[in-house]
Design brief:
InterPro entries: Biofilm_reg_signaling, Diguanyl_cyclase/Pdiesterase, EAL_dom, EAL_sf, GGDEF_dom, Nucleotide_cyclase, PAC, PAS. It is built from 26 helices and 26 strands. It has 708 residues and is of the alpha+beta class.
């Protein structure tokens, strides 16, 4: 009798107010437990390097887990399969499709075993695999049985009548000539019902064409078929998923006069695959499609619209002042609001449209096959009217409005990114006008204000004449109070306009591309200053420099870093580059660049962690050194259970992955006390010091103990 497993992480305060999330996570954990108990499971990266194996994998391969991790599956290669076999497998999963097949592997002790294998690729927003999950089941006994079948007809009958697999023989017309007793035990029909019937009458009507093609192919090719999946009807009217091998039986003349079918019930496996897929591509709170699934659909619909010369629309939708709901009624009420909003939006769109949740109170709608913009207006008006209806929570009625920005294909953009960008512009135009409205994108939204034009022109001069300076904010070991490093922060003191805030000029630098020369200047000055302090006799510290997404993806990034380190004489280990989670929109490319930075000897950290694209499943595969917890979680950590739970979860996963953690925005002793209690190693914020000029920072160093 199996004992139901327990999951301590579900007792975390994070789930106290979100029973639905807790149930979903428990369901996922149960599925993982069931798979671990019944199947051989492994996870590999895009290059086939093994990242995870379960106990079943170790047991059957006779390798220790440590011997498998970091290897690829060539360690198990038995030499049985051809290069074309594996080439076809990689071509299938590399294109994002699920691969199924049977593989003979070699165990550590030299013995061989067969596994029935399903490899499921997980795709990023660009549709490229970022990892593969393989589910295997030991079929060595079945393969042995198949071999015995070929050797002796009598032995074949003995085995088939005692096999849990469904084994049958059909003639060229599909009539049953023999069915094994397992047909009756699994499907519930009498054996006589099968023996007097034709196979297609038991097959789901949607799968019949596939089965006919497979039978005709085996009759012509005289070779065994690759695994075939179709559904078979049970006595109760439901259907079982069967994985089937079809083998030809030759007569004395070498002609195919009948076929052997070996069917295996894979219904539970199909349910597991469907559950895993659903969880990977849907929002856990609302059950709507998530960003990844939406982007995949949008790319396909844009391609179809170009081919058919049709119209579509993208609608960005925000719930107005949703933060008030969370703050005044609590996050549980906020979650109920989001669930109800998701239902109402879904009821307002057509069956061929899609609504997805991007996160927080942000939704996005895709309308396809449009006849005119009036159709978009009608649907958006329905959504607005529906959301304005009061929502009853805990016996009280609450009202909420929404803001929507709309971009049309092809008039407002001809690719997905352009449509999203312009729908977002239209949304912010509504917000700037007071919210609770709908706006179509128009070209005026891209016109820049006089202030913006002035700042852009002055920014170019500021870079040319080096009007910038760098302040340094110390990072401390929270346990000892010793300085461990400092973050370089760029400041602009304009000779006429005075000090200009970074949040004003950095976005302009990003959009115009001026962030590239500005970022290089900051990196060079930061490295020069750090080397200067070392030469003055101060113990070496790590200087952290921010890299925006645009800088991160510049073609000569690595050459630029190497050149600056060489010019300044700073050793690579005393430089840390801070990147934001926005770079992980292209996870595969980001991981490759991060690895090349690591190869230079430079450290990397993820800034503002927890606010963007990343998830723990991505983080564990990235070559990074440090997680920098966003200040928004630290701000109320001493009084908000959710923030505290999130920080503790980040600390736990960081410890598991051997990553350093620094808390950003530590301002009061109460925050520091909680962080110390939770075991956070490092901190940064006004509690310790504001950002200091280079001279003030040097004076600061003189008065503090320093550790490397």
């Amino acid at each position: 009798m199996s004992v139901s497993p327990t999951y301590p992480f579900l007792e975390s305060p994070l789930f106290e107010k979100d029973e639905k999330l807790k149930n979903i996570l428990k369901e996922l954990a149960d599925i993982r437990h069931a798979l671990d108990q019944s199947s051989i499971v492994a996870i590999t990266d895009p290059r086939g390097i093994i990242l995870y194996v379960n106990e079943q994998f170790c047991r059957i391969s006779r390798y220790e887990r440590e011997e498998l991790l970091g290897q690829d599956h060539r360690i198990l290669n038995s030499g049985y399969h051809s290069r074309d076999f594996f080439k076809n497998m990689w071509a299938t999963i590399g294109s994002g499709d699920i691969w199924r097949g049977e593989i003979r592997n070699k165990a550590k002790d030299g013995s061989f075993y067969w596994v029935d294998t399903t490899i499921v690729p997980f795709l990023n927003e660009q549709g490229r695999p970022y990892q593969y999950v393989s589910i295997r089941n030991d079929i060595s006994l079945r393969k042995q049985m198949e071999e015995e079948i070929r050797k002796s007809e009598e032995r074949y009958r003995l085995i088939t009548e005692n096999s849990s697999d469904l084994i049958s023989i059909i003639d060229a017309e599909g009539n049953f000539l023999y069915v094994s007793p397992s047909h009756a035990s699994l499907l519930g029909h009498d054996l006589a019902d099968f023996e007097s019937s034709q196979i297609l009458q038991w097959v789901h009507e949607e799968d019949r064409e596939t089965v006919v093609d497979a039978i005709e192919s085996r009759l012509a090719a005289r070779k065994e078929s690759p695994p075939l999946e179709f559904r078979v009807r049970t006595r109760g009217g439901s259907y079982c998923y069967m994985e089937t091998k079809i083998n030809p039986i030759l007569n004395q003349s070498g002609e195919v006069n009948s076929l052997t079918l070996i069917m295996r019930d894979i219904t539970e496996r199909k349910k597991s695959e469907q559950t895993i897929y659903h969880l990977a591509y849907h929002d856990t709170l609302t059950d709507l499609p998530n960003r990844r699934l939406f982007m995949d659909r949008l790319r396909k619909e844009v391609h179809q619209a170009k081919r058919r010369h049709s119209q579509l629309a993208v609608i960005f939708l925000d719930l107005d002042r949703f933060k008030y709901i969370n703050d005044s009624l609590g996050h549980e009420a906020g979650d109920l609001f989001l669930i109800e909003a998701a239902k109402r939006i879904s009821h307002c769109i057509r069956s061929n449209d899609m609504v997805a949740r991007l996160g927080g109170d942000e939704f996005i709608v895709l309308l396809t096959n449009l006849s005119s913009s009036a159709e978009v207006e009608s649907i958006s008006q329905r959504i607005q009217t529906s959301l304005q209806e009061p929502i009853e929570l805990f016996g009280q009625r609450h009202c909420i409005s929404c803001s929507m920005g709309i971009a049309l294909f092809p008039s407002d953009g001809r690719d997905p990114d352009e449509l999203l960008k312009r729908a977002d512009m239209a949304l912010y135009a509504v917000k700037d006008s007071g919210r609770n409205g709908v706006s179509f994108f128009h070209s005026d939204m891209e016109e820049r204000s006089l202030e913006r034009i002035l700042l852009e022109n002055e920014l170019k001069k500021a870079i040319q004449y080096e009007q910038f300076r760098i302040d340094y904010q110390p990072k401390l070991d929270l346990a000892t109070g010793k300085v461990t490093g400092m973050e370089a922060l760029v400041r602009w003191d304009h000779p006429e306009l005075g000090r200009i805030a970074p949040n004003k000029f950095i976005p302009i630098a990003e959009e115009t591309g001026l962030i590239i020369p500005l970022g290089e200047w900051v990196l060079r000055r930061g490295c020069e200053q750090n080397k200067h302090w070392q030469d003055q006799g101060y113990p070496p510290l790590k200087v952290s420099v921010n890299l925006s997404a645009r800088q991160f993806y510049q073609p000569d990034l690595l050459d630029m870093i190497s050149r600056i380190l060489k010019d300044t004489g700073l050793e690579p280990q005393w430089l840390e580059l801070e990147v934001t989670e926005s770079i992980f929109a292209d996870i595969d490319n980001a991981a490759a660049i991060l690895q090349e930075i690591r190869n230079l000897g430079v450290h990397t950290s993820i800034d503002d962690f927890g606010t963007g694209y990343s998830s723990f499943s991505y983080i564990k595969n990235l070559p990074i050194d440090t997680l920098k917890i966003d200040a928004s979680f630290i701000r109320d950590i001493h009084r908000n259970k959710e923030s505290h739970a999130i920080v503790k979860a980040i600390l736990t996963i960081a410890q598991t992955l051997n990553l350093s953690v620094i808390a950003e925005g530590v301002e009061i002793p109460e925050q520091l006390a909680v962080l110390n209690e939770d075991g956070c190693g490092h901190g940064q914020g006004f509690l310790f010091s504001k950002p200091l000029s280079s001279q003030d920072f040097e004076n600061y160093l003189k008065d503090l103990p320093i550790t490397t």
